[in-house]
Amino acid sequence: xxxxxxVFLCALACxxxxxxxxxxxxxxxxxxxxRVEVLVAGLSxxxxxxxxxxVLREFDRLHRSYHAWQPSELSRLNQALATGRSSTVTSEMAxxxxxxxxFSRLGDxxxxxxxxxxxxxxxxxxxxxxxxxxxxxxxxxxxAAPAGIADLQLDGLQVSSRNTxxxxxxxxxxxxxxLDRAAGILKAQGVHNALINIGGNVLALGSKxxxxxxVGIQHPRQPGPLATVELDDGEAIGTxxxxxxxxxxxxxxxxxxxxxxxxxxxRHTQALTVLVSRRSDAGTxxxxxxxxxxxxxxxxxxxxxxxxxQQVLRVDAEGRVQVSRALHARLAYVGGEPPALEVLP
Length: 345
Fold this sequence. Notes:
- The strands form five sheets. The chain has a nine-stranded mixed sheet with strand order 1-2-6-7-10-15-16-17-19. Strands 3-5-4 form a three-stranded antiparallel sheet. A three-stranded antiparallel sheet has the order 8-9-18, with no helix packed on it.
- The longest helix has 21 residues, at 45-65.
- The radius of gyration is 20 Å and the shape is globular.
- By secondary structure, the chain is α+β, with helices and mostly antiparallel strands.
- The model is unreliable at 1-11 and 13-20 (pLDDT under 50).
- The chain has ten helices and 19 strands.
- It starts with 12 loop residues before the first helix and ends with a strand.
- It has helices at residues 13-18, 45-65, 73-82, 91-106, 116-122, 136-144, 174-188, 282-296, 300-306, 325-328, and strands at 24-31, 34-41, 87-88, 152-155, 158-161, 194-198, 201-205, 213-218, 225-231, 236-241, 246-249, 252-255, 258-259, 264-265, 269-276, 312-316, 321-324, 332-333, 341-344.
């Protein structure tokens, strides 16, 4: 068995900025179990530093408030639901839960922040990757009586569930929410040119001293990017990959992206990237949407249309690349176009 390696969707802005003269302020931290960075362009250090610091403080607050397995507001809610009790939550939490249910419905339930118990069965809630597979009987029991975000009942700030197996986990959702919060904080502090990167989920504001922010889409089986793309103001890009958190048993890879229908890790896809045009929740959608499209496999175009996404790239289990025409036109493939490339309408 080999522990999963965490590979980021590379922000090339730092390297490129080193060649320029215009100021570029950078702050980094480790939050949400990953490396995060905030790059601010065109402002003095004195102006950029407090704005970037405010973003990192918000990231830390979100992480502490909504950690699924350590003491937090979310873990306390999970404890109440597990005993059949209703709970009063904050308006922020209620809004997150309502949005999670809405996105789950749009994604045919393949994005489901209510499968915390299944995540725990596979051991992916831990920082350390598991050494063994879950018992087949436990997975069969899950398939016979699954639990998910649809089991949650919201009545204002009152939250309850008749299914005591429901356990909430915002791991596939919160980074995108944090991107949108970061954009709001920066704009409120007079920052209009920045790049926010949370472990490969990226949102761009404005430009890098007059040039578009350029980021790389990580190759799922090789070091470095498969392609690069320039982002317009307000665009966000997110990738789900089987290389980010996984373990191996007897030469077989088990990634953290679980199909709620089979209760098994997905094997038909190596990576899936979505690019979301400017909108108020572009960061959230970029994080959320990559999950159901990854799990859907070859059926991803149908879900992409439902989610109103026109810019998607998928790498299947054999390394074949499928990309929407809209995104293909914007990509600069590193080393030339992949040999097995299909451009879809």
